[in-house]
Amino acid sequence: MLKVPDHQVAGHQARNGQLGPLIDDSGRFYKPLQDDDRGSKEVAFYSSFSSNTRVPDHIRRLFPVFHGTQLLEASDGSGLRPHLVLEDVVSSRSHPSVMDIKIGSRTWYPEASEDYIQRCFKKDRETSSLSLGFRISGLQIYGNEESGFWKPERKLVQNLSAADVRVVLKKFVSSNLPVDPNSDPDCSFAASVYGGSTGILAQLLELKAWFEDQTMYHLNSCSVLLVYEKEKVLKGERSDAEVKLIDFAHVTEGKDIIDHNFLGGLCSLIKFISEILTSPDECTTKACLRDSERDKEILTSPDECTTKVCLQDSDKNTNYSENGTIEGM
Ligand SMILES: O=P(O)(O)O[C@@H]1[C@@H](OP(=O)(O)O)[C@H](OP(=O)(O)O)[C@H](O)[C@H](OP(=O)(O)O)[C@H]1OP(=O)(O)O
Ligand SMILES: Nc1ncnc2c1ncn2[C@@H]1O[C@H](COP(=O)(O)OP(=O)(O)O)[C@@H](O)[C@H]1O
Predict the structure, then answer these.
(1) Which bound ligand lies closest to the C-alpha atom of 108?
(2) Which residues touch 290 (CB under 8 Å, ≥6 apart)?
(3) Which of 199, 210, 207 is nearest to 242 (CA)?
(4) Per-residue pLDDT reduced to its tens digit, 10-58
(5) pLDDT for residue 14
(6) How remote is the CA of residue 247 from the centroid of ligand 2, in Å?
(7) Is any ligand 1 atom within 6 A of the Cβ of residue 249?
(8) Is 175 within 8 Å of 143 (Cβ atoms)?
(9) What separation in Å is there between the alpha carbon of 271 and the centre of ligand 1?
(10) By 3-state DSSP, what share of the chain in percent is helix, strand and coil, each rounded to 5?
(11) Phi and psi at residue 43, in whole multiples of 5°?
């Protein structure tokens, strides 16, 4: 029985009669091929990658397992459509905290159409992509049974400044947010989720080492998905935090050239995460400075307060929706 994924945080969604991915109970994620060449490009990438003997095992495990394609009833009711059959990377978790981070200061690439390049260029400029080399595309953080998931609106997430991004990366590993929106993120899960020999930083560093070397693929507009289960961390079990690369609709051939765009963005993300691990207090200070700047903005031009982030971070006007999720940030 196919259903709409509960824990999808970005991308096209199979809700309200739209075309989007589906999952089943056996741990598979079915991503519909889009009509233009994006779908066939992604199939071509997965086919090449999964049979490429030059990819080391420790790198292969950072990608979802590929099980070929399958014709399925599309979620938009348009009939049978080929779908990529992938490992559902969150299926083994009941309350996964998930973050989708699109890597690269540019999501466009020279081989794309002029229209696509212009759209990407605009988004890259308007988000943190250009300034940081990556942008957060979507996220959800599990609080507790009462508060449920904190899943900020997509457009809100994409308007984050560099300072906001740092705060969100801290919130992702904090025990007191979103449960207690009045306190600064405590980063109490940072060591077990980001740190350690098997944590997220270690996995990102493995990926970086490979990208310093590999010239086979250029992963344009691709994301890293960060996933962990809070309950496991609370029990003090070994971190099950995972990094998975996803979205290969715009991969191009590497042609013996290093993927500088991906590598640069990855290094920037690594720096942010390393800083949270080594000096979490310093980040808080910067965030507080940012908050007071924003407070001034709200006081002087409340109607122009473009992001709810500032409201939540400073005035704690977080809205709890009926289903327990927190609206806004
Ligand atoms: O259609 P939109 O505006 O939701 O844009 C999609 C993007 O959403 P976002 O910019 O995050 O709002 C979406 O980004 P995310 O995966 O959500 O990060 C993709 O870039 C998607 O393009 P493609 O399927 O990778 O070719 C984008 O789809 P296309 O615009 O290329 O159809
Ligand atoms: N293999 C997977 N397993 C579980 N969730 C996934 C998987 N691939 C993607 N997702 C979820 O779907 C979202 C969108 O995926 P993506 O491949 O970027 O789609 P799109 O091409 O529509 O942007 C991701 O942010 C993530 O939440």
Answers:
(1) 1
(2) 161, 163, 164, 167, 313
(3) 199
(4) 999 999 999 999 999 999 999 999 988 999 999 999 999 999 999 999 9
(5) 97
(6) 7
(7) yes
(8) no
(9) 26
(10) 35, 20, 45
(11) -65, -45
186: amino acid identity, one letter: D
Tokens found for residue 188 = 């109490």
Ligand 1 pocket check for 38: Cβ under 6 Å: yes
Residue nearest to atom 22 of ligand 1 (CA): 11
pLDDT of 282 = 61
- Give alpha helix (H) positions in the chain: 37-50, 57-60, 114-126, 129-132, 154-158, 162-171, 190-193, 200-211, 230-234, 260-278, 280-300, 308-310
Q: Hey, which of 8, 12, 33, 158 would you mutate to test ligand 1's pocket, going by the most ligand atoms within 8 Å of its Cβ?
A: 12
Q: pTM for this structure? A: 0.87
For residues 188 and 173, give the distance between their C-alpha atoms in angstroms, rounded to a whole number.
7
pLDDT of residue 304: 33
- Spell out, as residue ranges, where the chain has pLDDT lower than 70: 178-181, 280-329
274-311 per-position pLDDT tens digit = 999 998 666 444 443 344 344 334 323 333 322 222 22
* Ordered structural domains, the chain, with CATH: 1-91 (3.30.200), 93-303 (3.30.470.160)
pLDDT score recorded for residue 300: 31
